[in-house]
Amino acid sequence: MEAIECVLILLDDVDIRHLSVEWLRRQIGLVSQEPNLFAGTVVENIRIGKPEAELEEVEQSAKQADAHNFILNLPEVNSCLNISHCPHSHST
């Protein structure tokens, strides 16, 4: 493999060498392409980031992720996103 001698990386037409390293690092994220499967219900999985989330927040999160309709078509034991179908919903 040949070594690269000169590379110009632009971010919004700005050479990244002119940007603050700290600022640039805060702008970059990594999304793994490997899926992670967790045990538990869909609701429990959505609550991983906020365990105390009310069911209404969980439902809103599913809608924002465009997963709500998919989840509603799962077997009832897994979906539990409709408040009336979730006898063991978490409340704080």
What features would you highlight for this structure?
two-stranded antiparallel sheet, single chain, ABC transporter domain-containing protein, elongated, disordered C terminus, 92 residues, mainly alpha, 34% helix
Structure summary:
One of its GO terms (cellular component) is plasma membrane. With 92 residues, the chain is mainly alpha-helical.
- Order of helical and strand elements: EEHHHHH
Q: What percent of the residues sit in helical stretches (DSSP H or I)?
A: 25-40%
Strand order of the largest sheet: 1-2
Low-confidence stretches: 88-92
Bulk shape: elongated
| Tally of strands | 2
State the end-to-end CA separation: 58 Å
Total helical elements: 5
Structural classification:
mainly alpha
Radius of gyration: 21 Å
Strand content: under 5%
What profile does the largest beta sheet have?
2 strands, antiparallel
InterPro entries: P-loop_NTPase (IPR027417), Type_1_exporter (IPR039421)
GO cellular component, one term: plasma membrane
Protein name: ABC transporter domain-containing protein
GO molecular function, one term: ATPase-coupled transmembrane transporter activity
